[in-house]
Specification:
The structure holds two protein chains of two kinds. Chain A is of the alpha+beta class. Chain A contains 16 helices and 21 strands. Chain A has a five-stranded antiparallel sheet with strand order 5-6-10-8-9.
Chain lengths: 472, 260
């Protein structure tokens, strides 16, 4: 990869702002900052410099210079994104918020946490739990950072009951490309005070402003949780159970997973899933205020599932068993990552999941590619993995690069078309970034995209902040 | 095969343990209680043996009324019967006392058995005494800390963990075996199992019924003080370029930790 160098004078200024120890310019270490978790390295780009500011004032000073000199700046959090959102622009710098990593306050009376943008999900959860609270949004990778989660409007499996991170962000401190530090919202449940710039920031993928601090709503912890693993002989019965369940019970999470990827993950982790029967499993995670309520809920779920032909209902109730089940579910990605080209993120109205997944299977058959599909059955967000392999009789058979490259776009197009025809969107929680930008017009009208570009220009007239992401 | 499995209700190791310093007891409020994990291996092993060889699995717990919850879980896992030996005293940390009750119950109520299965030790008390004491009092062969068990007719073969090695023990039945992590992977309860378990009656045996007087089972252990183990110290991060950091690390390992 080529490195574009910056004017040495400007470099010096950047270094003066953040201090030598907070700058990376050695190519070997900068390589880490050239990509995110999207698996194809085609989109990686080397930054000219990596800056790790420690305060909003340093961020403002960096942006002012960049704006003047028209140097692209790409904000970066944990780089766990799956669509190249934090990949730098040619000749641009990466602004990593990793050094702004303090949990500033857990305000118990208001049930709000105040955190810097570089706090990881892992550290945030720990702090919140230690204070006796609970933060539901949970993208599967805990090294994601608060700023990145807000910038992508992250969701995760608990969205069925508790919504996505948008439902929890109450206040933000952001720095605009002009170098203004804005304080949006606050420890407030309500606000009807003008346009919500706060909500505009959520999901803006680092294109409008750099998020430096957030006020996050936290909840009281549910006292009992339990995970149910429900095997079905076929996908349809499993998915058709979902709307029936949701009429009676709102689970914390409601996922569907095919047994084949579970088995690959069991092998990968050397752990055991509760049950090896069936073809598609539902994972239902419940929370309740008491054991009695939990028993009632489990009973209801079980009755509906058994009625729909579930083979049985397996119960993980101790913390250890629940962790085991959740760990296997969360690490599927890790287990099949090696052969994954892209994790799609289509979200359809949840009653459409079964039909959409059927389409995925037809497409897999047509192109002779393995498209393992699983995801958040409860909220309609389907993660179809496009693989560099076929899957036959339990065997993963790699296919040639020429072959998968030829099929990759065609498969995406067919699946997007199907998702859109069902009233869906191309991204439910990962964002558009670089990878999905050429498909954006399938999801949004030209008028909508034009309005969005206008908003971008209002914040960033010189187009320096994460240019080329979402749209050109 | 007729198998008796002994299980204990203990606080979940994942819950946060707090101590009541005046009474030297663990504060139960807010705790989750589960089957002691080693006992769960014992239950699983019993069920597998029964599935392979037929017979009957009876699960027994010594404890207060609340222990019926874990007995019901064992029934849900597939045990045929469950019995509570009612003991109104809270945790006494007195292994001998429990071993006496179990021995008496086995002699009086369950004289026909092939195998007594225990967990190697209970979570919390961690005494690892009861299985061996019961074996001694009943005059039975025993294999404890077992990670593999095979039964052939009236002969058992067990692999047990010993320091730095594994020991193979061959013994005749009836016998006492205590289970250790690695023996098997306990199954998850199923709703069908739970429904079936709900219908079963869990008989309660009192100490009087076993012919034990209060003084026979008076606790012999006094708890004078109960403390949390010291918090683990934070790790040390050695900064600097790799060559220097490695040198420094070697030096610290030699001088401070004294491990090399
Ligand atoms: C195994 C795995 C599982 C995942 N599961 C889920 C899931 O269940 N749900 C889900 O929603 N996502 C999931 N993701 C995707 C990813 O974790 C989320 O998108 C996450 O929110 C990204 O956070 P990050 O800090 O890593 O952001 P990055 O990848 O660093 O950046 C993402 C975007 O945010 C911008 N950005 C980052 N920080 C800031 C800031 N401070 N100010 C302004 N813009 C900023 C970047 O420019 C970029 O456009 C998963 C990823 C992996 C690898």
């Amino acid at each position: 990869m080529t490195i574009t160098t910056l004017d040495p004078k400007i470099c010096e200024e950047f270094i003066r702002i953040v201090g030598r120890e907070n700058v990376i310019d050695d190519p070997e270490r900068m390589d880490d900052y050239s990509h995110d978790e999207f698996s194809l390295r085609d989109i990686s780009r080397m930054p000219a410099l990596v800056l790790k500011p420690r305060s909003p004032f340093q961020v403002a000073a960096i942006l002012e210079i960049a704006d003047q000199e028209k140097i692209p700046v790409t904000p970066r959090g944990g780089a766990t994104g799956l669509c190249g959102g934090c990949v730098p622009s040619p000749g641009g710098v990466v602004l990593s918020v990793e050094n702004m990593n303090r949990v500033l306050e857990i305000d118990a009376d208001n049930q709000m946490a105040v955190v810097e943008a570089g706090v990881t999900l892992n550290d945030f959860e720990k702090a919140v739990e230690e204070a006796g609270f609970y933060f539901p949004p949970h993208p599967g990778e805990e090294s994601a950072m608060i700023g990145g989660m807000i910038a992508t409007n992250a969701g995760g499996s608990r969205a069925v009951k508790y919504g996505v991170i948008r439902n929890y962000v109450r206040g933000l401190e952001v720095v605009t490309p002009r170098g203004d530090i804005l304080s949006l919202g606050g420890k407030l449940i309500k606000s009807s005070t003008g346009y919500s710039l706060l909500h505009l920031m959520i999901g803006s993928e680092g294109t409008l402003a750099v998020i430096t601090k957030a006020v996050i709503q936290i909840l009281t912890k549910p006292s009992v949780t339990r995970s149910l693993v429900i095997p079905f002989d076929d996908l349809e019965a499993a998915i058709e159970t979902v709307p029936l369940l949701l009429k009676k019970v709102v689970p914390l999470a409601l996922e569907f997973v095919p047994l084949d990827v579970i088995q690959i993950t069991e092998e990968h982790l050397q752990k055991k899933w509760p049950c090896g029967q069936g073809e598609t499993h539902l994972l239902v995670i419940l929370d309740a205020a008491s054991e009695d309520e939990m028993d009632r809920l489990s009973q209801t779920v079980a009755e509906i599932a058994l009625e729909k032909g579930a083979l049985d209902v397996f119960i993980a109730d101790t913390a250890k068993k629940q962790d085991n089940v959740l760990d296997i579910r969360s690490k599927i990605y890790e287990a099949i990552k090696h052969d994954t080209i892209e994790i799609m993120d289509i979200c359809v109205p949840r009653a459409e999941i079964a039909a959409h997944v059927k389409k995925v299977r037809a497409v897999a058959q047509k192109y002779g590619l393995w498209l393992p599909t699983f995801g958040h059955a409860g909220d309609g967000n389907v993660h179809t993995h496009i693989m560099k392999a076929r899957h036959e009789d339990g065997q993963v058979i790699p296919i040639s690069e020429a072959e998968w490259r030829e099929k990759f776009d065609k498969i995406r197009e067919e699946l997007y078309d199907d998702g859109m025809a069902r009233g869906g969107v191309i991204s439910g929680e990962h964002g558009i970034g670089l990878v999905k930008k050429k498909f954006l017009s399938r999801s949004l009208s030209p008028e909508q995209i034009e309005l969005m570009k206008g908003i971008k220009r209002a914040f960033d007239p010189n187009g320096i902040l994460n240019p080329g992401k979402i749209f050109d | 095969m007729n198998i008796l499995v002994f299980v204990k209700r203990v606080p979940d190791t994942e819950s946060k343990i707090r101590i009541h310093h005046e009474t030297n007891t663990v504060i139960e409020e807010g705790l989750n209680f589960i089957i002691s994990s080693n006992d769960e291996y014992a239950v699983e092993e019993a069920l597998r043996l029964r599935e392979a060889k037929g017979g009957q699995v009876t699960v027994i717990s010594v404890g207060a009324e609340e222990s019926t919850t874990i007995l019901r879980k064992c029934l849900a896992m597939g045990a045929d019967e469950a019995v509570l030996i009612k003991d109104d005293l809270k945790e006494t940390y007195d292994g001998l006392r429990i071993a006496k009750m179990i021995t008496r119950a086995v002699e009086k109520k369950f004289p026909h058995f092939d195998l007594l299965l225990f967990g190697k030790q209970s979570v919390g008390a961690d005494n690892a005494q009861v299985p061996s004491m019961v074996a001694e009092m009943l005059g039975l062969p025993q294999a404890n800390v077992v990670t593999k068990l095979e039964i052939n007719g009236t002969q058992g073969t067990a692999l047990r963990e010993i320091e730095g090695a594994e020991e193979k023990v061959i013994f005749s039945l009836p016998a006492v075996v205590s289970a250790q992590k690695g023996l098997n992977e306990p199954r998850y309860e199923t709703l069908k199992g739970i429904m079936a378990a709900k219908k079963k009656i869990i008989p309660v045996m009192t100490l009087e019924e076993l012919g034990l007087r209060k003084e026979d089972v008076a606790p012999q252990v006094d708890i004078t003080k109960m403390e949390m183990p010291p918090a683990r110290q934070a790790g040390k991060i050695i900064p600097g370029p790799p060559e220097e950091a490695a040198k420094k690390l070697a030096e610290l390992l030699r001088r401070e930790a004294k491990v090399i």
